[in-house]
Amino acid sequence: MENLGNARETLTGAEEVKGEEAASYIDQAHDKASATGTHLRADEGGTAEFSKGRVTRLDDGTTLVVLPLTGGDLTRSALTVSFSPNGDTGVHEILLREISATSGSVEFWVNGVKSLDRVIDVPRATTKGWSEFVDCLNNSGIAAWVVAAIVAACGVVCGGTAGTACVPCIAAAAGTTGGVIGYCINEAW
Which residues contact 178 (CB under 8 A, 6 or more apart)? Predict the structure, then answer.
């Protein structure tokens, strides 16, 4: 769980960008996502909610646009477009679909390339800390498999990209849970 705590700390210092600057970044994110292509199932009603986008700037100057992905069979999914100070951009999608109360599927895409496609099954927790964490998530309306899917997706991209996709993945994850993960980490440990 230390990695989740570190992820939360990574985003704690982020500054929210508002107004015309935020609108400009959201427009750029729309263009970048359109050029890269998203993997939503539009025929099933999946869409990126650009009007609900959040824009934040990290201490290193990287700006993140996090957009909820909704509709169809999606559960707490997000699209993150990152803009680095040196002009590099990245598009990261985390698509979560519930199968049952304890399982779901996760797809993670980096710049249009699928880096993870897995079914996650989380049995009832029994260890101290983890059990309280899962209970907190469930009480907040977030299934434990969602957290396991996020950990799986971010673990793959953090290791596979020498860390460059870590922060956008973490930002997408934070965007899918509305801060509940950090709260539950604090409650359980």
Answer: none
- Owner of token pair 């964490």: 133
- Over residues 37-77, the pLDDT tens digits come to 777 665 567 788 899 999 999 888 989 999 988 888 888 78
Question: 40 is written with which tokens?
Answer: 């939503």
Q: Where are the beta strands (DSSP E) in the chain?
A: 15-16, 47-48, 54-57, 63-70, 77-83, 89-100, 103-110, 113-121
- Prediction pTM value: 0.74
Quick one: 175 exposed, middle or buried, by C-beta within 10 A (0-12, 13-18, 19+)? buried
DSSP annotation string for 80-107? EEEE-TTS-EEEEEEEEEEEETTEEEEE
Spans in the chain with pLDDT lower than 50: 1-8
Query: Distance between the two ends of the chain, CA-based, in angstroms?
Result: 9
Nearest to 16 by CA among 68, 53, 70, 48: 53
CB 173 within 8 A of CB 94: yes
